[in-house]
Queue: 3 jobs
Job 1
Amino acid sequence: MALNFPIKGALFDMDGLLLDSERLFMETLVQSTEPIGISKEDTEAFFVTLVGTSNKETSKHLSSFLPNHVEVTIFEAEWRNLYRARVEEGVPVKPHVRPLLIGLQGAGIPMCVVTSTVSRVAQKKLSKAGLDEFFRGVVAGDEVIANKPDPEPYLRGAAVLGLEASECAAFEDSDVGTTAARRAGCLTYQVPDLRPAGVALPNLDQYVVKDLREAGCHLGVLSKALT
């Protein structure tokens, strides 16, 4: 299959890009904050500021968002336990993911996941979604020194494939992740998912697409007639 761009590898964010897990994470946060008097609207507006951040950054933001009488460590542990229980039930795969992965696989393009999620959880999510078979490896948030928006995760992902980042296409949903991919030198597609209201997309010479189908068609691994 002839590609529109001479890429040799593909690097994928996971939450909010391959899996609809960000929405699930937001729903469980709403469940956790409603009993302490925080509205659904305020919680959802807060959550979108967390998209793409590491666990450490999430904890920092939580401490400034929650009321003073709430013990942040206990709250976060209970929230994450609730989320993990939902993950055990399965996480929905985002639209057009499988056709794109199959198309890249058919074109002989090796793939790696680059995520801020810790390794154990990332592996479990991918396995439950039936996507793990497509990827040569996973670069997780607990395996790097500097998380996104630092380029390290994407540089590491390219190295897993035996490639330079400039030889890879990256697929992201968040501004933080898109920044990391572009800093690494990847050809980058951004598929915006959950976003803060009124916040413009960064201008990083990325391709902004409505979904992964559009990205696949633009890259040349999906046919508009078949997707």
Note: The mean pLDDT is 93.
Job 2
Amino acid sequence: MQSIRSLTTTSALRGLVLAGALAAPGLAQAENVNLISADGTVDIVGEFVAFDENTYVIRTALGELRLSATRVRCEGAACPSLESGKAEADVILAGSDTLGQGVMPLLLEGFAGVLDADMAAVVDGTNLQAELVGDQGFGDALGSYLVSSSASDDAFTALLDKTASIGMAARRILPAEARALRDAGAGNMIDPQQEHIVAVDSIVVIVNPENGIEKLTMAQVGQIYSGQITNWSQVGGRDMPIKVVGRETDTGTAGIFYSAVMGQEQDSWQFVNGITIASDNNEAAALVNENPGAIGFVGYAFQRGAKPISLVNACGLTMSPDAFAARTEEYELQRRLYLYNREDVDPESKEFLDFVLSSDADALIRKAGFIDLGVASQEQPLDGDRARSLLDPNVDAYEGNVMREMLGTMIDYERLSTTFRFRTGSSRLDERGAIDMERLIKHLEKAPEGSKVMLVGFTDDVGAFDSNRELSETRAQQVLAELQTRAGDRLDGIELTYRGFGEVAPTACNAEDRGRAINRRVEVWMQAAR
């Protein structure tokens, strides 16, 4: 089996730290610089040679190394002035290729349309350079935009070095990264004015369209990637070797996937010999489509005709990678896609961010194949998975009565995708709550007068059953109060109520921290007036 460190560029560079520290004595100390990534995994000392095309060139005992300024920051007296050396554009976005390649081209087109501008775009490798000209191309230049697509880690390095004004990340900023930026004067990176959720995404496990497999357990997926399962016949498929397609671990997509199927500790990840490492989502999908025995994982927007499969969690719950499950964040391999900016963000970048975060961008996000934060609805039929779970005969009579009470209530309502979540033992909403609240109000404003909306609370299973039901009602009541406060008289024609059902109807495993966090929620049910 292979260690993931042998597969990644980041870990290869990590091995150069000692080499840099033992650089030849002849290197002039005054000319030495230190190149460091935001998370500290790259830390190289060498003699500064040049800064060319947004790339540092340094000399070490192993020879000259070239590292993109979007991946590392430079420390030392010989470091160049980034204000003069950085790529030329009015607005520079750097980071996750999931956002940079997947959705930014369409968002820039949409932004140009709002400005009544013409956009001329040039793609050079992983970089997209766009120029906007007003009056449909006949007016003045409105601005230039550079999108540099690589990995989520690079978003925070670029913000730290001011080589980008907007960072793109397929994961939330890490505490160490936030502290480094705060200490550098960038502000509070988790403040709502600096941290922005632009979409949600499912990481989809894909197989070749010819493969008859429809679902796998999370454990089986982990065993496939670690080499414990090597043939499709071992999981109910035909006799065919499994070809495993993976990604570099410094990408947001891979980090979430490997943590979910192989455990949180990266040092323990061991990979099957012969794993193929795809450079990005597009290549991963192409490799799976080309090989009948292949398996891979990609962001929701990058399936490219490959066959998505459902996953079964440790509690036996089947999870399908559909848009509604992603919006409710109840699909285990889902994530939020973020944009970040420094506190001292420039007006041009702020204007673009305001557009991306508006409802005007929702259709563009959907067109790109991603899942916007708009409100969707879904019926709750008696023959559905949720209704069947509430009829479980293997529960005591007291809990069964609550389950049947919920069943009798929910069949008259559709569920909206808006779902509010809480920290453990708290009635405080998470960072997405404020965004969803305003979108929900705008959605409900369009409902016919006389429609009914119920805020329905749930908890994890930590604590006593009755206490959890009381807590679920408290949380539902709190969300209702906040909804009424924010809406003012905008929802006067809607009947608003709340209920709480405690720990019944979990949507994830209560055995894990992440599952319990998913289960601590307030759902929104709606019965539209006829």
Note: Residues 201-328 form a domain with the D-Maltodextrin-Binding Protein; domain 2 fold (CATH 3.40.190.10).
Job 3
Amino acid sequence: MKKIYQLSVLSVVLIGMLHAQYRDIPDVVTKVATSAANWLKLGTSTRAAGMGGTFVAAGQGVSAIPYNPAAIAYLEGSEVYVSRTNYVAGITYNVISYGTRLSASDFFGINIFYLDSGPIGVTTEKFSNGTNEDYHVTSMSFKLAYARRMTDRLKVGVTLNYIRDEIYTTNMQSVAFDMGSNFDTGIFGIVLGMSVSNFGPEVQYGGEGLQVPVADSLDVDGRLNKVTESFPLPLMFRLGIQKDIIGPSENATLKSSTHRLSFAMDGTNPTDYTVHGNAGIEYAFRELAFLRAGTNIGHDTAGFAAGGGLFFKMGSMSAKVDYAFINYNILKLMHQVSIGLEF
């Protein structure tokens, strides 16, 4: 009972700190629209989505690479993860991840992300109602992750990330780095997760769409290039905790070999928004069936989230199927589904 009380107090304090942030003050500067490639902040794990986006400490395996690269240090063998998300306004994005254990303490992972806006009608100054031509906004990232078990309680990881954005006839490409850690504190069974994402140089758009033909030019092809302003990537610092309230582990507050109930909470401090957070729970029955729920704290549109999943054993392999949704209020629901294979 004492442990439950202490965990409850800690949760209330963290939630209170997030709600106390100044983003609700009318005159505050929220830093919105001050960075490029905001799609780098999209949630890619279905399990995380069902828990309200909490994953920096709770994530284990390749689906957590974008949240915290140290999460692949939980792998016992190899894992493949595939997900599809029907986002808002007809936008969809897909993820493919792979990870494997190289040695007793070394781990390697790959994460590929691809976003498609769907068809958008082309309009010009002369044809404001459209030219009967469509274009797509596409964004992709390719991550190479490495993680290491430093001790039985500490895991660290880093990611090298190639990113590319295409908007009609303009494009941008760059590289960025992520780093993170997971630490079993040994205090009431709390796991602490930390990560820094999208650390890299400022980016600038270029391409054919920014070329202007001129009659008199020193350029061989008779074109001049417009110089666009450069913008930083959306650098994010995440801090999270995870705790088994009920479960078979020795760190669980209440012991049970059949049921597990985990609580997780994240706080995020981005360079292009105010501090916000996520809180969620996951219930597991014999680690075969899962129910999840969570909420976004301090987010301008995202709110309640929920989901579930099933685990199947198939000989030497196992499979996981997960589904989640997030309520974006006026933007309606986001749906995400994923399949994972462990071998």
Note: The first helix runs from residue 2 to 19.
